[in-house]
Structure formats: C-alpha cells, structure tokens
Amino acid sequence: MQLLESLFHYNFLQNAVLAALLASIACGLTGAYVVSRRMVFLSGGISHASFGGIGLAFFLGIHPPLGALVFGVASAMLIQYLSDRQDVRNDSAIGILWSAGMALGIVFIYLTPGYVPNLMTYLFGNILTTSPADLWLLGLSAVLAVLAFIVFYPLVLAVAFDQGYARVRRLPAGAVNYLLMALVALTIVTSIRVTGIILVISFLTLPQAIAAIFTRRLSGLMLWSVALSAAGSIGGILLSYTLNLPSGAVIIFTFALMFILVRLTWWAIRAWARRAEN
Q1: CATH classification of 2-277, choosing from 1.10.3470.10, 3.40.50.720, 2.40.160.20, 1.10.3080.10?
Q2: How far apart are CA 257 and CA 159, in angstroms?
Q3: Per-residue pLDDT tens for 32-78?
Q4: Domain boundaries in the chain?
C-alpha cells in the first residue's frame, strides 16, 4: 500500500513507470523483429557503438542521448550498407563498430574538461532518473515503432522471414531493411536510460523469448512481447525501489525470472499432458 502511495506521490516514480511503458512498446515491437531476423548480436553492436555519441555529446556539452542517437543510427546504416555490398562480413562490421564506438566514447569523455560524468547510468541504466527529455525521446520511439509496423507490416513479415522471397516478388526489401535498422537503432538508444548499454540487449530478447512460448506468429509475438515487457519492467521498477537496488539490473533479473518460471510451467504442463495421453 505504501509503495502505491509513493508511486502516485513522487514524480520520479511516475516518470519511471511511463518510461517503462513507452520502452516496452518500442522494444516489444522492434525486439520481435530482431529475434525473428536473428539480429541480437547486431543490437549489441549498435548499443555499444552509441557510446561514442554519448562521449562526444559530453565533450560538446549537449544532451547525451542525442549524441547516442546520431552514432546509433549511423552505425546501423553502415552495418546494413556493408552487409548489402558484402565487402565486410556482417559479424566483422558489428565487432569493429562495437569496439570503435566504446573506444571513441572513452576518449571523448577523457578529453571533456571539468567534471568527469558518471558513466554507470549509461552503462547499466537508471530508469529512476528519467528526465522529461528522455520521455519525449521514448515517446517518439514508441510512436514511430507503432506506425512503422502497422503501415509496413506485410513488408516487415516478408523481410523478417524470407529475404529471398521478398526480392523475387520485387518488394522494396532494401528500403525496408534500412528503415527497420534505423528504427532498431532509435529504440536501442532511447532505451539506454532504462537498462543501460550493457543490458539493453536483454530488453530486446528476454520478453520475446517468453512470448515465443505462446505464439509463433509475428503479430502475436509483438503483442505478447509488449505486454510482458510492460509487466516485467514495471515490476522491476517497484522491486528495485523497494530493495534500493539498481533498476536496470533488477528489471532484467525480473525478465529472466519470468522466463524461467514460464518455461518450467510450460514443461510441467507438457509432461502432465503426455502422461495423461498414456
């Protein structure tokens, strides 16, 4: 009861819950596409490459998520371009941008005069410090994700499961790939405040892994992922606030616990059904 009173009394908790809902929409939708395309490693490369933008933003004195957004989208476009040209292997391009982005971020932060910023918030996330500017970016990401997957859903479905089929049918697979890569980058960068650079991959994969237990359809995977992301992230926020633990880590731990419980329950039901048949 006291926890619910705190939720309605403190603005930072209200901002955190709103951020969790917006991030759940964006990550639930784009994460379903990432998992379907088996691009989890790519999302990690984009998130770590964006650290270079955070360092540059500190150096220039601008809002760090804006710098991360520029680096993140640019990295996603470059990875897609190199993959299409086949000049560099996809995993090699991701590894290069992953390491180069982190290195650039560290160099820029070292060169920043005056107070050295605390990087823990960006590496591991702290949703309890979400600002109004962060909420605007999360809202933009959620709205664009919803619009993109509603308007281009047939194209997304074709590209996600069969690139060759999409090209044979002369669908604009290349343009859709670039659009969705930019959307994935936007989602990752705006979600850094929630879970951090290191843990954001889990936000794009764990709820989707749970959702895959219930459905194999892309549309169902998206809807289940959004719902599970919202439930896990809000539960993680309340738990981290109660136990005074890092919010990003607790949210991911909540997702992992949900996955274990659902998977064990699913296995138990299947085992019981087999015994009943015999």
Answers
A1: 1.10.3470.10
A2: 32
A3: 888 887 777 777 888 888 888 888 888 888 878 788 888 888 888 88
A4: 2-277
